[in-house]
Structure to design on (278 residues):
């Protein structure tokens, strides 16, 4: 297991970051390594972003030092979405099978969590978000058929997309974690327009289903002080509460959004007109 810590930045400080500093503070370049767990512990709402890739052996999610806990889920809840081959997650005595684009919520509670791939030649890729939890809620597998689905945008505006709200309060109870998946249709490349912020929640984006020769340009920063970060498939980016989170790519793609904070109201956001962005 490998982990790193990321610290919070004041928006006035972030205005002066050059490309290297922006990438160092907010971009998570490598999430998946064979037979390894890679985690980033962020000071923004103490969200953990990670990737788990079991190939030749099971991988156990053990607590990292910043948690100061006997188990990873001792005071945390966990959201998992499989973006690879078929795999299983064993949480205590319960085992959950996850196919491509299926999600799993694990509530807090002391138990061992182990990840396996069904086929080493097509390993599972478990993308995870974890946030502090004040109580236990039941574990639950969530598929796209369980999700709250919203169709938004249009091909004419290059942003026809399907938003699958997987781990949200309309589907199951959580303490603060929310996760979902937005799929852009062929010919569409823009997400999250009009841009917005939500001061009571931070967010992380994970991009996938992007060809190897394509790239996505993620936009962040305050609406009047925007910055950009070029990203590739299977990379993630941390978005502070004061920042917009939007992107445009050279090909259509899918991304997973995860949020943590004091509010579970998906619609709580302050939008900014495209023509007002700077």
């Amino acid at each position: 297991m490998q982990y790193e810590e990321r610290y919070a930045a004041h928006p006035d400080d972030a205005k002066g970051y050059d490309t290297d500093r922006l990438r160092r503070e907010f971009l998570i370049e490598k999430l998946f390594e064979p037979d390894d767990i890679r985690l980033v512990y962020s000071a923004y709402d103490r969200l953990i972003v990670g990737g788990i890739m079991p190939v030749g052996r099971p991988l156990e999610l053990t607590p990292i030092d910043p948690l100061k806990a006997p188990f990873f889920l001792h005071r945390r809840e966990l959201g998992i979405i499989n973006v690879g081959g078929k795999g299983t997650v064993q949480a205590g005595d319960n085992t959950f099978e996850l196919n491509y684009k299926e999600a799993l919520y694990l509530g807090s509670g002391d138990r061992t969590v182990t990840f396996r791939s069904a086929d080493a030649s097509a390993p599972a890729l478990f993308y995870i978000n974890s946030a502090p939890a004040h109580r236990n809620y039941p574990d639950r597998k969530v598929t796209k058929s369980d999700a709250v689905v919203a169709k938004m945008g249009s091909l004419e505006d290059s942003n026809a997309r399907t938003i699958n709200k997987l781990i949200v309060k309309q589907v199951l109870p959580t303490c603060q974690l929310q996760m979902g998946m937005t799929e852009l249709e062929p010919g569409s490349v823009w997400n999250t327009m009009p841009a917005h912020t939500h001061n009571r929640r931070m967010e992380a984006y994970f991009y996938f289903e992007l060809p190897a020769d394509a790239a996505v340009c993620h936009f962040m920063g305050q609406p009047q002080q925007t910055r950009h970060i070029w990203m590739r498939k299977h990379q993630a980016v941390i978005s502070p509460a004061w920042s917009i989170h939007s992107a445009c790519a050279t090909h259509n793609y899918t991304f997973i959004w995860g949020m943590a904070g004091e509010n579970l109201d998906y619609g709580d956001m302050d939008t900014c007109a495209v023509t007002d962005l700077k």
About this structure: The chain has a mean pLDDT of 96. The first strand starts at residue 2 and ends at 6. The helical segments are 11-14, 19-26.
